[in-house]
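Case study 2.
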Amino acid sequence: MTDLFAYLKERPYPGRGILLGATPAGKAVCAYFIMGRSENSRNRVFEKTDDGIRTRAWNESKMTDPSLIIYHPVRRMADGTLIVTNGDQTDTVRDFLAQGKGWLEALCSRTFEPDEPNWTPRVSGLMQPCGSHLLSILRAQGGNPDCCERFFYTYDAATPGVGHFISTYEGFGSPLPSYYGEPVTAQVPDLDAPALAQALWDALDADNRVSLYVCVDGNEVIINKHGGEDEIK
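Prediction:
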């Protein structure tokens, strides 16, 4: 299995990333982080909501375009289902599930982000209370916006000590290269939420990291580059 901390340290710009899995003791784990290069992307913090988290501008006067950077990354439904994504498709999945429709149907109604020339992939995850989880990536085929590739990954049981990670980018470039291949199978250490959050935060490039959310067994931690260090919720 992959050492996720080493993996992230070797990649200064994975963009946005999702980790779903379980600790060695079988406790459910979810992590989501955002990184940024531009002032607009870096001008954000995570903020707790009644059913998850949202992004908001750290300095409202410096926000130039909120369309793709202000959203709810995490929503938790009444039955305990957790939805985590890198965009407003979080709400699409929630709404489809509330209507008795499916995850695949929800994401087939969406495509990659309209941020030419990067066409940033939409990455999404869903975790059930039992620990089974789903991941997806919607990306432009070879950078061609005329074709959206849709990949869906199903893990029908939680394996203690195992997580699955996916991100938006492979690194720097012009345009930014989209994540390629299956989700990384990563070792999940026996850490509580604050310790896991700190280890992940330390593994992210210090110049590009913006905000991080971690949930272990229902215990949530937020770390924001702006607005306070190690903000624990």
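The first strand starts at residue 17 and ends at 22.
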